[in-house]
Amino acid sequence: MKTIEMRFSGAGGQGLQLCAKIFSKAMTGAGYHVSMSQSYEPTSRGGLSRADIVVSDTTPDFPLATNLDTLLILDQAAAAASTGIIRDDTLVIVDPRRTKTPPEGNFKVIELPLSETAITVGSERVTNVVATGVIAELSDNIEVKTIENILRSISPKKFLDMNMDALQAGVELARTLKAA
Length: 180
Hints:
Blueprint: E1 4-11, H1 16-29, E2 33-40, E3 48-56, E4 68-73, E5 86-94, E6 109-111, H2 114-121, H3 127-138, H4 144-154, H5 160-179
Parallel strand pairs: 1-4, 4-5, 5-6
Antiparallel strand pairs: 1-3, 2-3
Helix pairs in contact: 1-3, 1-4, 2-3, 2-5, 3-5, 4-5
């Protein structure tokens, strides 16, 4: 396996560190070495926030993402934060409701109604879980069932059903995209 680099970006309070934690657990559970880093502005909500994971068969050479395979953008605050590390074949997933001007380049930007889907599930706060479902379904390296099991194990009981619904809604968004 080559090194895989993923970035989850948006605004503070959108659960981006949780996304990275879920994917990190999935990849370490599959026997890979994972480095996780995070960066956020000193405001608790609304400022730029990102979480990166670097996955490899051996200890990653460098703990920060420098050549992205997957990029999630949930807010305009993060649209320009990854300039220079997006490759032409990077999977760039954007929530167009909150990101009016996505990054531009030779890469393909996939706009999906992540936050709108989360609202229909029950709360915009599960946009990150919808996105997790999308990325898991589109990934060749991660099983959706593994992500589901991790989410079940870390979800507070009162949010478990909503989180499971949000994950499934994200999987369905990705399946619709793949079928198109």
